[in-house]
Write a structure and sequence with these properties.
The protein has 90 residues and is mainly α. Helices cover 53% and strands 0% of the residues. The longest helix is centred in the middle third of the chain and has 15 residues.
Amino acid sequence: MGDLRMVPGIGAKKDQELTELGYGSLAALKDADPDELYVRASLKQGAPLDKCVLYAFRCAVAFAKDPAPNPDNYRWWYFCDENSKSKKGK
C-alpha cells in the first residue's frame, strides 16, 4: 500500500487509477492537475467517469500539496463544484 491511501477517499481502486496515470505517490501528485487526471482517466475508461472521481482527484492533489494535512479537512465532497463556487464567492 502506497502513501496515496493516506488521503481520505483514496482506496485501492483510485490508488491503482492514479498509479496507472503515472502518479504512484503523494510526492508525484503535488504538481498534478486534477482536471487533467480526470480527463485522462475518463479517456482510459472509454467514457466519462462519475464526477466524484474528479472531486477525489482534487482532494488528493490538495492533500499532496499540504505540508501537514489534517485528514478531517480532506473529504472528496469538500471539492465538489458547488463547494468550490461557494468558496470563491467568499
